[in-house]
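TOKENISED FOLD:
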Amino acid sequence: MSPAPADELGYKPLDGGWGWMVVVGAHISIGFAYSTPKALSIFFKEIQEELGASYSEIAWISSIMLAAMYAGGPVSSALVNRFGSRPIVILGGLMCWASMVTASFGTSIIYIYFFIGVIGGCGLALNLNASLTIISKYFLAKRPLANGLAMAGSPVFLCFLAPLNQYLLDKFGWRGSLLILGGLMLNCCVAGALMRPEQPNNSITKLKGSCVKNSKKFLDLTFFKDRGFIIYLIGNMMFIFGAYAPIVFLPAYAIDQGVEEYAAAYLLSIMGFVDMFIRPGTGLVANSKWIRPRIQYFFSFAMIFNGTCHLVCPLLKSHALLVAYAVCFGIGFGMVFALIFECLMDLMGNERFPSAVGLVTIIECFPMLLGPPTAGLLVDIYGDYKYLFMMCGSVIVAGGLFLFVMNTCNYHMLEKEKTAKDRHQYSTKNFFLNISVMVVPEEKSGSQKVTRIHHLGKKSMCTEISPSDSYSNE
């Protein structure tokens, strides 16, 4: 599908200029939003031992944080529509800082759930949605590339946070590490400061009216009437269910296979390093004239590749093979997340995207919440990580196949509907058929009257006009 026209926004996006500084801010904000729940897994073993939690209980930390991040989408969208992206991202950074600092004093797993999971997750929600929304205002033609560069923040930050957290854990323990991590997350406030509003003079009134309208619509349920949106949502939920558990448990799995702790932590760094280059690269490919009209199929392929990596993982036992898995995982994961929001923009258009992403994220919080704990429960029951990877891989591959098949059917149906609509418009345009003109002399004046006969199906309608009137055989 082609990108939405500029007149949907009421102005032509810059596709450059200060927009690239906005991408830098979004890169930082999105980087913390997506990498923090993953990088926190470095602390899980120590927290688990100190607080006496099981694998499934400890997995709830990342799940609650991610679920709160996604569930906060509609609230974040409404706040962005009302106040703009800049103050919302700054507020999100402050919330993340407060959550990490407060959690460092925790004495129970429930305490950690609330402060890291709920408060921290809500702060990340403000960062994520505000960053995605402002990119859609600054870019149109170069939007896939801008999204790819912004989404690359996740692997870039994961690449550095994973070994950094391991170092901090060895030096300061998990409590001191959370204090330092909270301080680092204040950089989200700097990122927010870069997000200058884009409101051209000729569209201020329109944008303000749109903001008021959107703020009144907390959840726009009319999206459920859109067949393409439903297909995207189902496939995306299947991916989200299996996406994060392999990341959360990868270091523990590697240690279980005899890999040294730092080497296990570096597997996440390797994944992040590969992902770092894959996301902008995928954005460039997706922006090409061959791929952009078929971007939904490209998204399906990325999901299938990602899921296949997880299905193969239980066969890999040595450190070298796990490194290869981390590389492939980074490729698949990076491709999916470079496309995941671009595909939604492609379906909904720039104007409807903020409301659509809010609805998608709040629905996705449920598979996000259940995925890692379900995987952790499998480890608790069977004492083996292979079932975790098999479950996640199967669900993701099924989701990719679902998207491919259903998008094929959807595009076929859209083409049929377009043909039927064009045929209907053609028949309507030619509704007045077989018009005949008859000249009849007028008895009294000697002038003439022209009688036009319109044949409307089985009925006829006659009108009389004088010779001086202009007429045409329509």
Notes: Residues 1-7, 200-212, 449-460, 467-474 have pLDDT under 50 and may be disordered. The beta strands are 433-441, 448-456, 459-465. The CA atoms of residues 303 and 400 lie 5 Å apart.
